[in-house]
Amino acid sequence: MATEATALQDAVHLLPQTNQLRALQSIIRDRHAKRKDFVPNAGRIIRQLIEAGLELLPFEPYDVQTPVGRTYHGLRLTEQICGVSVVRAGDSMETELRAMMPEIRLGKILIQRDKVTKLPRLYYSALPSDIAQRHVLLLDPMLATGGTALAAIDVLCDHGVPEEHIVFVNLLCSPEGIRAVRERRPAVRMVTSSIEERLDENAFMQPGIGDFGDRYFGTDLPA
Hints:
28% strand; globular; alpha/beta; PRTase_dom; transferase; nucleotide-binding; EC 2.4.2.9; GTP-binding
């Protein structure tokens, strides 16, 4: 069991499990949490995740002059980037990304489960025209079975984005989802705040958080 847990952590960039992060997780996982508490505290975790995702991108040396006339030998991103959210829950992460980087290019993908086949089906995508030349932060709070994530990754790859240019940013992920993505798309990097214990018989993560989209957008919570 310990070996499997280590392998999963090696496959995913897991945020450091600090006391502060665990306190934020406790707020948003609480079944009695109200939206006024859920949204801002989820946002605080999402910002940490986005920063961790950006850290995986290539940087180059960049010097600037400070107000006191000295040179600071810093860094800047080497490549152009964009964010792509998986509608609807991924829009919560897009909100935080846009606040952090107001000029970033954004795209959207809508994938829903087909009522007959039960498989993920692409219903809509709107992506930057030059997305093949960009590194992509793929945004979706939940990685459960991996079906939706893989369908979204397929859309990006079909538009010319190399696997290794995709960073999948999620709030929670299951061992099953991690394995599914790693098996099909091994070059895609993943960032998460928690690796859950397992999926239950209804494909909900345990201990989980419920339906993130409903809770974030207020369709399942008291105001």
